[in-house]
Amino acid sequence: MGSVIAETFADAGYQVIIVGRSAERLDAAKQQLQSRPGRSIATLPGDVGRRSECDRIATEVERQFGRLDSLVNCVGASDRGLADELDAERLRELIDQNVTTALLCCQALRGLLERSGGSVVNIGSLAGKVGARYLGGYNVAKHALTGLTQQLRLEWRERGIHVALVSPGPIRREDAGTRYRDRADGSLPASASAPGGGTKVKGLAPQRVARIVLQCARRRRTDVILPGYLRLLIVLGNAFPRLGDWLLIKFTS
Ligand SMILES: NC(=O)c1ccc[n+]([C@@H]2O[C@H](COP(=O)([O-])OP(=O)(O)OC[C@H]3O[C@@H](n4cnc5c(N)ncnc54)[C@H](OP(=O)(O)O)[C@@H]3O)[C@@H](O)[C@H]2O)c1
Question: Is the shortest distance between the CB of 197 and ligand 1 below 6 Å?
Answer without folding.
Answer: no
